[in-house]
Design brief:
This protein is mainly alpha-helical and 521 residues long. It has helices spanning 3-13, 15-29, 42-52, 68-81, 88-117, 120-131, 134-140, 146-165, 169-185, 194-203, 209-229, 232-235, 237-252, 270-280, 283-303, 306-323, 337-348, 353-378, 383-387, 428-440, 450-457, 463-474, 489-494, and strands at residues 397-399, 416-418, 443-446, 479-484, 516-520. It is built from 23 helices and 5 strands.
Length: 521
């Protein structure tokens, strides 16, 4: 057998897909060490800390905001890469590499799913757009679990399709294993559970014994995966359930915390369409997505096409279950992106060949521009490390609280005093100390726009904060801006002209916040 000839033929037939995967790999695996020696993402820090607490004799992570599957996987992989007891650095780089790998594997997966469920054109267009997706590139660089959810959601969707096509014990088991994995990553994935049950009921007559066999296989496999990967749901149930209750209260807004204050007065669905999707997808893709979704929805109702119905159901479950929450972080929309690209690809595949080539090619080129703008704005030089080269001083400095971005400045401003401006409205001690602090301090450091942005744009909920920051920016306290993170033309493209006011704040504050240093005149 001529293996050289076989290899050449394979590359000739698949040169397009291989080229796309190479481009996707460059975007995802480059600069995974961003921010070194600091690790600025708070969720990433929490996950790394929970993994660092584990050992082969101690399996309780004491962290239940997420499921155990990715935490235990991260521990085992970190153990191997760290040649024994892994360091915090090893753990963080390992979980970032896992995110990048899942983001990369999502590309051939999306092509395969689009090809098998619809046609080859759909698979090609979907993978083209996903390769240069800003959302997938950004979250490939975070050691968080959004890429886990996205990757497993896509394959769960495909296995549901397989069961609908060929009801069998094997396919029921596949659905159960994937559903169990999703719940073991994040409990909110429980919203998916009804879809397979409905598929089973529609596929098998009620009086058939197979119906109960399929349901049993599906539910038992879910429970099995969850029990193995989340043992402390049973062994430390009080801590587990209290953590879920705490996270749930934050999500629905009954428990206000400082990092959700930007969501006061926001409108569900409209907020995601105007503040999140334009960044994750870019405006060009979103412009095509909305009519594409409506077109496929119309086709679903008119033709009752099962594949269209499954796609629409998955997207709406993912989107609406997160969009209606009080908290509307950018990361909540990442798992919906593969389905968005499938909608766009399906709609475009209905066009004539010339129109299809022109429009899909134009969308890819425009998306590549946004991807490059984001990539080269964020990763070559961290904005906090760039700002920390500000000249050293021994003068007293006011520093905003609860921001890991302040870490590089603690040596630059050794006289720094952290002041809790988040609680300024109610904290009388801070209110009384503030005039003297503003008078005696030589610098005022804001490691990101997160705090002052909400105060300047929401005077109703933060009247004291609004007055203070308005005066600070106007120079009423004697301060002027000595340094502010610059925003080049690439930055303006990536963040739609204004990185502070046009996007949900977590699109920037973790990997490219806008640092402001005020200096007393």
């Amino acid at each position: 057998m001529n293996y050289e000839l076989i290899t050449m033929n394979f590359f000739k037939k698949n040169i397009f897909l291989i080229s796309i995967l190479i481009l996707g790999g460059i975007f995802r695996f480059s600069y995974l060490t961003w921010g070194y020696p600091f690790f600025f993402h708070p969720d990433e820090n929490n996950i790394s800390s929970s993994i660092a607490r584990l050992s082969f004799t101690q399996w309780n992570p004491h962290f239940f905001a997420y499921g155990g599957l990715p935490i235990y996987t991260g521990f085992l992989l970190s153990f191997l890469t760290g040649f024994g007891k892994p360091s915090f650095l090893t753990i963080t780089y390992t979980i970032r590499f896992v995110s990048a790998t899942l983001s990369f594997l999502l590309l051939p997966s999306l092509f395969y799913v689009g090809y098998k469920m619809y046609n080859k054109t759909v698979g090609i267009i979907a993978v083209l757009l996903a390769t240069v997706s800003v959302g997938f590139i950004q979250f490939a660089h975070f050691g968080t679990f959004e890429m886990w959810l996205t990757f497993f959601s896509l394959w769960f969707f495909y296995f549901c399709y397989l069961f609908h096509q060929h009801p069998s014990r094997k396919n029921a088991l596949r659905m159960g294993l994937l559903a169990g994995a999703l719940i073991s990553i994040k409990v909110s994935s429980i919203v998916f559970l009804p879809i397979p049950l409905l598929l089973i009921l529609l596929s098998v007559p009620i009086r058939k014994k197979r119906l109960y066999v399929y349901i049993s296989i599906y539910l038992v496999s879910i429970l099995g995966i969850f029990a193995v990967t989340n043992p402390f749901f049973f062994l430390d149930k009080m801590s587990y359930t209290s953590a879920l209750a705490y996270e749930g209260a934050i999500a629905v807004g009954t428990l206000p915390v400082f990092y959700t204050q930007s969501f006061f007065g926001t409108t569900p669905i409209l907020f995601q369409l105007t503040k999140i999707y334009p960044f994750l997808l870019n405006p060009c893709i979103e412009l095509f997505f909305i009519p594409s979704f409506l077109f496929i929805l119309y086709k679903t109702i008119k033709t009752r096409n099962a594949n269209f119905l499954l796609l629409t159901s998955f997207f709406l479950l993912l989107f609406l279950s997160q969009a209606i929450l009080f908290v509307k972080w950018t990361r909540y929309m990442v798992p919906t992106l593969p389905f968005v690209y499938l909608f766009v690809a399906l709609a475009l595949s209905k066009l004539r060949s010339r129109q299809l080539f022109f429009i899909s090619g134009s969308l890819f080129c425009l998306s590549l521009l946004f991807a490059c703008a984001f990539f080269f704005t964020v990763y070559p030089k961290d904005s906090r490390l760039a700002a920390s080269t500000f000249p050293k001083t021994t003068k007293s400095t006011i520093i905003e609280p609860y921001d890991l971005g302040a870490l590089p400045f603690l040596s630059v401003f050794p006289g720094g005093k952290i002041v809790n401006f988040y609680d300024l409205e109610k904290d009388e001690i801070t209110q009384n100390q503030l005039p003297l602090l503003l008078q005696t301090s030589g610098f005022f450091l804001s490691p990101s726009q997160r705090l002052w942005h909400t105060r300047l744009t929401n005077p109703t909920d933060f009247p004291r904060g609004n007055i203070m920051y308005t005066k600070l920016f106007n120079g009423a306290y004697g301060f002027s801006i000595a340094y502010a993170t610059p925003c080049s033309i690439l930055c303006k493209i990536a963040y739609l002209g204004n990185p502070i006011y046009h996007l949900e704040e977590t699109a920037t504050v973790f990997d490219h916040p806008f640092v402001t240093i005020f200096q007393k005149k």
